[in-house]
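Annex B. Sample input.
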Amino acid sequence: MIQLYHGSNIDIKEIDLTKCRPYKDFGQGFYLTVIEEQAEKMAKRVVNIYGGSPIVNIFELDEAQLKNNDLSVKDFGKETSEEWARFVKNNRNKQFSDYSDPECNLDNKYDIVIGPIADDAMALLFRQHEMGAISFQTLLNGLIYKETTNQYSFHTQRAIALLRKVER
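Annex B, continued. Sample output.
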C-alpha cells in the first residue's frame, strides 16, 4: 500500500471526475502525489485562489492493482523525457484534436498516468512553445535538468475505485 496526497480547500468525501479541470498535464483527472509536502503546497495555492482552509486529503492505493490487466496505466517514471514533454504539451493544448494519439489522454485512454509534474517554470516554457516563441527542442532543453516532483492522475471511475480514503 502507498499513501497518496491531494491538496485542496475541501475535505473530499467522494471523487467526482466531472469537477476536475481539463487540459492538465495528463488530461482531465484527479491528481495526487506521494509527497505530502507537495500536496500541502498545492492546498495553500488552492486556498489563495478560491479561499477556505488548506486540507490535505489522504488516499491509499494498493500498488499491485497498477498491474491489473483491466487497467491502462501509463508510467513515465521520475524523470522528464521527450515523450513526457509531448504528452504534457498535447494534453494542455486546447486545439489538439488527435485523441487517438497515444501521446495524449484527452479521451481518457489511460485509466492512470504517473510521472513528473510540469511546475510553474515548466508551464511557462510550454506556453512559450504553444505561442511559437520557442522551438520544441528549446522546450526540451529547458525541461531536461529540472528537479521534478511526482503525480498520479486517475481518469476513470475504474481507476478511482482503487483509491481508499484515509481519515486522520
